[in-house]
Amino acid sequence: MSFVEDKYQQRARKDLLEFFSRKENKTKIFYSRQLELLFEDKYYHWITNRALRDLIELGELISEKYSLEFAGSVNLVWHKSFRYYKRAAKEIIELIDSYSLPSLSADIGLRGETLILEGFAMNGFNLLRRETNEFNNQRWPESDHNLDFIFSKDNINYGVEVKNMLGYMDYEELEIKVRMCDYLGIKPIFAVRMFPQTWINKIREFGGFSLIMKYQFYPISFKELAKKVNEVLGFPIGTPKRLEQGTMDRVLKWHINNVNSISKSH
Length: 266
Known about the structure:
About 45% of the residues lie in helices and about 20% in strands. It is of the alpha/beta class.
């Protein structure tokens, strides 16, 4: 048996094993996305996932695939000493199914866009375009991808992409959206729950900004479900009526730096 001997993957393996070996966790069921989120302050999601697979292959953890009603299947994971796991597994599957409804997923995506739209509008950004790949008589020629919004403030134009999701967005899509903004002559802003630092650096290289929310936003009408998912699975979920001003202040601070940079260049 051989593993990619990445030092972070080794550390993640050790941390995961210690986590599962705790008395309170030996009789609990987890799954990969949940563990990625629980450990994301220390490790990128893919590192946690690789370390998890290592421990399953070593026999330290047990994994079993379960079918979901709306979202394909999921691999549940538990400590090798947990023998009577079926009831706990059933409860986790029922909870995952409850927040995997296609209608709820659509509402969650729309909720993120609504909060961003209101937050930018309340802070003096003018909405120029929505769901578009065209700007200033230029049209992105390489694909059918669209930007969620194009805003303008102080004669600086921004292409804003919103991803109100627990996991990272698709990296290929990120690259396309960054290049699209570059082609259209606008600065990219990604409003997301979380990004790896390497992705944040890449966006910065293109003059862009990553607005890290840390939370996934549920519609207010699903407040009780959000609370249950947060308590049982530890997911960072919230149901705010609006973005906190401190969140928008980070965008405004970056915008002012852009204004000052343009002034200096002239």
